[in-house]
Amino acid sequence: MLRPIRPVALVVLTACMLYPGVTQLFQGLYPFVSQDWFNLVGDFGPWMGLAQKLGLPLAAAAGAKAALGAAWVLGVLGLWAGDGRAYPLALLAAFGSLLYPGGPMVMGAIGLVCLLFFREKPDTIPA
Fold this sequence. Notes:
With 127 residues, this protein is an all-alpha fold.
């Protein structure tokens, strides 16, 4: 395993994942599931602005938000399973959440602190 996360940090990471991960995954998948594009402006905020600046369709903003939510969920679940390969995925999700103001930004910052500062050296962990 590659640089596992301490148990307390893993619990905090899980709590941080619940809000932005599940919310962004749902909001990102919502237009694809319901085909209701009309009510999305409030859900996408900065994602809509970024998509417009890059000249991308709304589906790209929705897909990016869903991918970020999925990265949170899969990354943290992978860390719980003890898979070190999930670490970069959780790190990407935490960085990505900093782009979304409000609760996700706060949770992303807390998650980033946990990922960067509460890792353990593999040789100090009892087998």
